[in-house]
Amino acid sequence: MTKSFKITGILILVGICISIALNLNIGFLRLNFADFFSNTPNSQIADLRMNRILGMLLAGMAIPTSGFLLQEYFQNPLAGPSVLGITSVASLSVAFYIFFSQDFILPEFLQNSFLSFSAIAGSLLLMSVLLALSGKFRDKSFLIIFGFLISALAGAVVSILQLYAENQSLKNYVLWSFGANNQVSRNQILVLGGFVVLGLLLSFKSIKPLIGNSLGTAYAQSLGVNLKQLKFLVIIASSLLSASVTAFLGPILFIGIVVPHFCRMLFNPAKLWQQWILNMLLGILIMEIFSVVSEVTLFPLNVITSLFGIPVILTMMLNKRSLGRQA
Hints:
- By secondary structure, the chain is mainly α.
- Helices cover 78% and strands 0% of the residues.
- The chain has helices spanning 3-25, 43-74, 86-100, 108-134, 140-164, 167-177, 186-213, 217-222, 227-249, 255-266, 272-297, 301-326.
- The chain is globular.
C-alpha cells in the first residue's frame, strides 16, 4: 500500500471515530459512559444509539460496495444498487406486505420481522430471475435495460397500491420509505450483519476477476477470467448487500453511486483492492454523518441522502457530457 493511501485511510478512520462519538452523544437525553455497559435507567436509550451506529456502519459498507461492483462490472460511473431493480422490487414487496397485512393482528416484533423478510424474499426472487436470464443477455447493457423495466413496473404497481390503500397503511409505507436509522433492534442488526458479511465475502471473490474485466473482455478471457462466473458473483453480491439494507433500513438511495465516485477522486481508480477498502471506509463515514444530521434536523435518512446525492450525480453527468464534447 502506498503512503498516500495509508494517510487517506487514517484520516477517514479518524473521521469515523469522531462521527461515532457524535452519534453516541446526540439525542434528547445526555448519557453517561455507564449507560452503555451496565443496567441503568437510560440503558435502553443507549442500546438504541448503539443499534443506530451499527446499522449505519453496516449500510456504509454494503451500499457503496454494491455500487462499486456494479460500476466496475458495467464500466459505468452512474450504475448503482438500484440499476438491476433490486431496490425497487424490495420496496414493492414491502408495499404488498404493508397494504395486505392490515387485517392481521401481530406483535410489533413480528411485524418488523415479516416486513424485513418480505423485502429480502422479493429481492432474492428477482435475483434468481436475473441469474436465470443473465445467460441469455450476452450484452451487459441488456441487464441494465431489464433492471430499468423492472424498476418502472415495480413503481407502477406501488402507485396502484397507494391509490387504493387505507390511510394508516399508506402512512406506514411512507414512513418506511423515508429510511429509519433508529428503529432497528439488536436481533435485526445481527441478521443484517450476516447478510452483509456474506455479500462482502462474495465481493472479495469478485475483485480479482474485475481487475481483468476492466482491461477488456478479450484480455480478461486470455487471463483465464470466467466472465460468466463473474457476472453471477456481481449479481448475487450486489443483490444481497442492497436488498438486506433496504429491508431493514429502507431504500437509502444515491450513496451507492456517489461514494464510489468520491473514492476515484481520492485515489487511483485502477487500484480496485484499494478502491474497495476506500468505498467501505468512506461509506461508513458518510452514513454516520448522515445519521448525526438526521438526529439533529429530524429529517428522514432517505431525504438527507437524496438532498446530498442528487446534486452530486447531476454534476457527474454534466462533467461527463462536457468531457464528451471536448473529445
